[in-house]
Amino acid sequence: MRGTILALNSGSSSLKFALFEADRGARAARVRGQIEGIGATPHLIAKDAAGACLIERRWSAGEDGTHEALLGTLLDWIDSQTGAAELVGVGHRVVHGGRDFTAPVRVDAAVLAALEALCPLAPLHQPHALNAMRAVAAHRPQVAQTACFDTAFHATMAEPARHFALPPDLAREGVLRYGFHGLSYTHVAHTLADIDPALAAGRVVVAHLGAGASLCAMAGGRSVDTSMGFSALDGLVMATRPGALDPGVILYLLQHKHWSPERIETLLYKESGLKGLTGGTGDMRALLESTEPAAEAAIALFLWRLAQGVGAMAAALGGLDGLVFTGGIGEHAAPIRARACARLAWLGLALDQAANEAARPVISAPGAPVTVRIVPADEERVIADQSLPLLAETDR
Ligand SMILES: Nc1ncnc2c1ncn2[C@@H]1O[C@H](COP(=O)(O)OP(=O)(O)O)[C@@H](O)[C@H]1O
Ligand SMILES: CC(=O)OP(=O)(O)O
Ligand SMILES: [Mg+2]
């Protein structure tokens, strides 16, 4: 197949993208970029394969920085980079596939409708991915589109990990633990299999720490358990989401404070987590630079839950051979990695501080019982990998 494929990753705080040559596979992107800081101060940057900057733009406070407007700008720019006949497919990251989508699919009207029905379970992500699909369909109707699911990687989870302790009728209608960040975990599993097959075959906890954050317990490269569940709210403290929360708090807000469901949804998705704790920003970079006591308190809670979560995932695996950091915080925040690993010394974690500061691929101390690695997230590559065969099928 010839032509260009666009991989689009609609995250909660970012729109990441990459352009691949279909006949060269998903290994090397021709262009990579992202709009980060969505919801705060958006910043677009894109680079070519040699790392040269192709475009850089910052949005000021007065400009339209909504997801929709930013997507429009991005698609226009991508248009300017690809001739009309050149773009042959767009692959999308779709956060929630529910029970029905456990493998990538071609997007058609029925798929769009089924994915639309899952929007209430992922309001921070799903609508943006679907908007992107509609925008591409309107703008380039001849371009085939695919949906690649975050939930799919967790289809292998252990049976108890899939369930809530609720009456089975609810499970039968889909109230189950699905798990997310699956495209990122797929990339980590593939990367480990390439660079460290012995570790890939073992018991590994992967910490995807970005604006959204979760943990995955992987045995032999397959998901056994994960910290997110029915929605992308559960588990770790995130930029604007609280992570694990006693459901009694929701009842209290509903019954005693008479909050509307909409107000509670806003609290849980947009006003909690690091942002809620500090009353300011949910951006870890800014918190690490801050001298405010609230910033340190928020980081302390983030680390408390992270270490607790890694312990829980190690228990799900019956031991731990490796810990992998990925995502914006996992890749770039050395102090967070250092403090998390210090808390986990009892599990056999010990860092080589210089390697950690330099963000080397392996950051554990030589001879430490648990290998600690950094694997840069690349959900776009997984999207391209999963989309290419589907696009080629219809191309024949
Ligand atoms: N150098 C850094 N130090 C600390 N945190 C960082 C750094 N670079 C990025 N981050 C954090 O990474 C997060 C975004 O991660 P990313 O995985 O790109 O987000 P998304 O979940 O939207 O895909 C932000 O909270 C940002 O503060
Ligand atoms: C599932 C999820 O939270 O994704 P992100 O980290 O991109 O917000
Ligand atoms: Mg992300």
Automatic annotation (TrEMBL):
Q: Binding of Mg(2+): at which residues? A: 9, 379
> Where is this protein found?
Cytoplasm
| PROSITE patterns cross-referenced by the UniProt entry | ACETATE_KINASE_1, ACETATE_KINASE_2
Q: How the cofactor binds, per note?
A: Mg(2+). Can also accept Mn(2+).
Please list the cofactors this protein needs: Mg(2+); Mn(2+)
- The highest taxon in the source lineage is Bacteria
- Binding sites annotated in the UniProt record for substrate: 93
Q: Which Pfam families match?
A: Acetate_kinase (PF00871)
Q: Which residues bind ATP?
A: 16, 208-212, 283-285, 328-332
Picking any one GO molecular function of the record gives: acetate kinase activity
Q: Which UniProt keywords apply?
A: ATP-binding, Cytoplasm, Kinase, Magnesium, Metal-binding, Nucleotide-binding, Transferase
Q: What is its EC number?
A: 2.7.2.1
Catalytic machinery residues? 150 (proton donor/acceptor)
The site feature described as Transition state stabilizer is recorded at 181, 241
**Catalysed reactions, as listed in the record:** acetate + ATP = acetyl phosphate + ADP
Group of enzyme by EC: transferase
Q: In which pathway does it act?
A: Metabolic intermediate biosynthesis; acetyl-CoA biosynthesis; acetyl-CoA from acetate: step 1/2
Quote the InterPro entries the UniProt record gives.
Answer: Ac/propionate_kinase (IPR004372), Aliphatic_acid_kin_short-chain (IPR000890), Aliphatic_acid_kinase_CS (IPR023865), ATPase_NBD (IPR043129)
Q: What does this protein do?
A: Catalyzes the formation of acetyl phosphate from acetate and ATP. Can also catalyze the reverse reaction.
Oligomeric and partner information:
Homodimer.
UniProt family annotation: Belongs to the acetokinase family.
**Protein name (record):** Acetate kinase
